[in-house]
Design brief:
Elements: H1 14-35, H2 55-67, H3 70-100
Helix pairs in contact: 1-3
């Protein structure tokens, strides 16, 4: 006899959703706090890309730094941190909605 798979079997418990929300909001807070000093920075220094892990992103960041004028490098990086923090907060809001608003249970046909 084969076990029937139900949607309840794959549902995430509300406790874990609350932990995820707190983690997302904490990460958003950290990114906002890190972005504040960047708005006063006159320029950003290029990094030396040493390892293979993450080298593509390091090179991409260095090329963006070389293309942008030094006067807007700090504010541009600060805005990018805030945009990512907003993205994290949006995911947290969607997770909160999934806890508060329960999906309608499917009705059985008579």
């Amino acid at each position: 006899m084969k076990k029937q798979i139900r949607p309840e079997d794959y549902e995430v418990r509300p406790f874990f959703k609350v932990i995820a929300i707190l983690l997302l909001l904490f990460l958003a807070y950290v990114f906002v706090i890190q972005s504040i000093p960047l708005f006063n920075a006159t320029s950003i220094q290029s990094e030396v890309c040493k390892s293979r892990k993450g080298r593509i992103f390091c090179e991409l960041g260095n090329s963006i730094i070389q293309v942008t004028p030094p006067s807007i490098q700090g504010p541009l990086l600060g805005v990018s941190y805030i945009v990512f923090a907003t993205f994290l907060a949006g995911i947290a809001i969607l997770t909160i909605k999934s806890i508060i608003i329960k999906p309608a249970s499917p009705r059985k046909a008579d």
